[in-house]
Amino acid sequence: MATKRSAIVTGSSQGIGAAVAERLARDGLAVTINYSGNEAAARALADRITASGGQAIAVKADVSDPAAVAALFDETERAFGGVDVLVNNAGIMRLKPIAEADDDLFDRHVAVNLKGVFNGLREGARRIREGGRIVSFSSSVVGLYQPGYGVYAATKAGVEAMTHVLAKELGPKRITVNAIAPGPVATELFLGGKTDEQVAQVTRMIPLGRLGEPGDIAGAIAFLVGPDGGWVNGQILRANGGAV
Question: Which of 11, 58, 75, 99 is buried most, with the most CB atoms less than 10 Å from its CB?
Fold first, then answer.
C-alpha cells in the first residue's frame, strides 16, 4: 500500500514554522513538528492538525546536534514510513553591529542557522525518498545587507551556497533542493525588541505596503514542495513583497 507523503518541519512549534506545518498538513502531508524548547505549543499544534483530520507528531530535537537530527528522521520514519520533504526552518536572529558582536552570538548563529541546516541537509540527502523535496530558510537580508545583520546574513549566505550545491548532488535522485528568503514577517522573531517606528520604517521599504504574514511564506513553500514546483531546483525564492 502506498504511504502518504511525509514532511519534517524544523522549528515549527510557532511562527512561520507552525504556519508551514499547518499548510502542508492541509495539503495532505503527514507532518513532523520539531521543537527544541516549546513542547506545549508543538503538541498543541499536532493535536489541532490531528483533530482536523490530518496526521502529525511532535518531536524534540536541537538541530545543532547531528545525533538529534538523525533521531528526528528516525521518529518520522517510524511514524510515517519514510521522509519525503524537509523544511529547514529552525533559526535564531540576534542583531548586533559586527564590532559589538561577541563570540557567543557568532557561535550560536553558526550552530543553529548554518550547522543546523547542514545537519538537516546531510541527513535528508541520505534518507529522503526519491522524488522528495528540501526547502531551507535563507533571508532577504542577503541582498539588503542592513547594519546589524552581519552575522545573521553570513549564516544565511552559507545556506544559499549549500542549497545550490546540494541541488546538483541530489539531481540523480530527483530530489529538488531550494531555499526561501523571506523579507520581514510579522512574527515574534522579527517584531521582538523593535519599536513601532522601527517596524514602520521597515514596512516602508516594502512596495506592497505591509509586512509579510506567516501564511505568505507557507504558501510559497507549499508551491515548492507540491506538484507544481517540481521543475524549480537549486533556486532562492525571495518572498518579500518586492523589498529587494
Answer: 11
Q: Is residue 26 part of a domain?
A: yes
- The number of domains in the chain is 1
Catalytic (active-site) positions: 152
Sign of the torsion angle spanned by Cα atoms 153, 157, 162, 168: positive
C-alpha torsion 41→34→112→233, nearest 10: -130
Average pLDDT over the chain, rounded to whole?
Answer: 96
CB 57 within 8 Å of CB 67: no
Angle value at C-alpha 91, between 165 and 79, nearest 5 degrees? 80
At 189, is the pLDDT very low, low, confident or very high (cuts 50, 70, 90)?
Answer: confident
- Write the CATH number for 34: 3.40.50.720
72 belongs to a structural domain:
yes
pTM of the prediction? Answer: 0.95
Strand partners, 30: 6
Domain that holds residue 73: 6-239
